[in-house]
Each structure stands twice: as C-alpha cells, then as structure tokens.
Amino acid sequence: MFLRIISNRSHKGSVMAEAALTIPLLLGITFIIIEFGNVLYLTNTLNQISRSAARSASVTPSYTQQGLIDASRASALLPDISKLTLNVTPAPGAVRSIGATITVTAQYSYIPLINPFGFFNSNQTWAPTIRGISAARSEVSS
Hints:
Layout lengths: L1 H6 L4 H48 L5 H7 L2 H4 L6 E6 L11 E9 L19 E9 L5
Antiparallel strand pairs: 1-2, 2-3
C-alpha cells in the first residue's frame, strides 16, 4: 500500500527543476569551450605570424614593420588587425651582421566573448594579451 501511494504522485515539476539546474551549467561549459578554442586559435596564429615575420626579417636586408606584417599575412589570419602589435629586435633600420639573432614578438589584445569582470562592474573591461615569440638568425647583413 505504501508503494502505491508514492507511485501515484505527479513528477511533472521535477523535470523543470532539473532543467533549471542543468541548462546554466551546460551553457557555461559551452562558453568555456568556445573561449578556450578562440584563445588556442589566436595563440597558434600569433606563433605563425611571429615565425613568418622572423623568417622574412632574417632574409631581408632592410625590413619595415609594415613589410613584416604584410609578409606574415597577419591581416588575413587575425579577426582585427588593429589589435596586433609586432615588436622586432633589432629595430627596423638598425645595423646587423650575418648570424645576428632577430626576435619577433607578436602581441594581440583579445577581448573575450564573456567579460568575467562585467558582472561586478560593467565599466571595467578585461582584455588579456596573447603573445607569440620567435627568433631567427640573420642570413644577410644590412
């Protein structure tokens, strides 16, 4: 008789309660996966840009900042080229000899899809910097 009383109860509200608990969790996991994929893509892209720019600088006697950005095809690879900063050591126009090390650092200010600090203060923005660094040996002298 006790089992019969329990089996006659309605369980319609339990489905709504379970959905209310699991849907935000699944959405959170989905957004974390999307953000991780974006950061991984940008990290690999910046490594490729810095490698291409370092290679171009190592074989070009007189290189320019814009010339290295064009040689690395950064405008085709990045979603917003204005957030890219390319630092080259030695600076363009500096005297270098064969065998000198050329270091290229590509930095990108990434704005996440979800701002974790926006929940606390809507005026505060959070933009982490993603970097890719490569070095090459100069094959020509300037």
